[in-house]
Amino acid sequence: MHFLALLLVCLLMMWCTPLRRGLPVDIPQLWAGFAARRLADRPLLSVVLLLLPLLPVALLQVWLVAQGWTFMTLLLFVVVLLACMGRGDPLGSMMDSFEAALARGDVEAAALVAEHEQGVVGQDAAGVLTAMRAALVRDMLHGYVVTVFWFVLLGPVGALGYRLLRLRLAQDMPAGGPVSALAHALEWVPARLMAASFALVGHFDHARQVLEDALLSWDVAADDLVARTAEAALTGGESSLADEGDNAALADTRALLKRALLAWAVVLALLAVLG
Fold this sequence. Notes:
Keywords: Membrane, Transmembrane, Transmembrane helix
Number of strands: 0
Order of helices and strands: HHHHHHHHHHHHH
GO biological process, one term: response to antibiotic
Organism: Halopseudomonas pachastrellae
Helix content: over 70%
Number of domains: 1
Pfam families: AmpE (PF17113)
Protein name: AmpE protein
């Protein structure tokens, strides 16, 4: 059921580009905003309220399974997963304007696109390119890898729980709070699996060295780990992609992400066959 729902969602996102940004009405985002406003001065209760929708989703799943309504259960899985995946398009054409501006040497236009599309800021071409590359990897981690990981393990509850936590973190939550700690815990294993996949499909030795240095470290942020591993997998430790001065760095980054996703797809397919 999990693999079938994931396959359907992937096909829908391939055929319908707007779905890469999520459903037209982002109900999790609306709920996260409500929870933040309702209990802004009580962080622990705010987290409880934030995660409250997990209970009805879990009960609905249990009831549908008990009734034997396979199609309705699959529909629940697909809708919840669509509501939780994406919100970015790291493999699509959304960055065409950025890459076109960079290719013609218009650094100012590229910087404006980067700030508008991804909220990243750089002082020069190298800084903008580095920030955009890290943003693409971060979008893949948050929007796809961690979401799919917890969906496979826990179903809709896992995917929705992580999505709600990420939304709350985006609302200027202080570092070190309960939401930040929960999100870090949920990202710890998937980030290392993603980094390992970069090593498998890129420059293995250099990516492996970066991964080994932070493999068992609880304090290393997931975003930082996958960004550094991706750069090592792409450059092989020879030079920085930001020094290339054209749009090849983003093209190579997206190619790396596609190869890593293919590796994940093969693993999930094997698990589905064996399971």
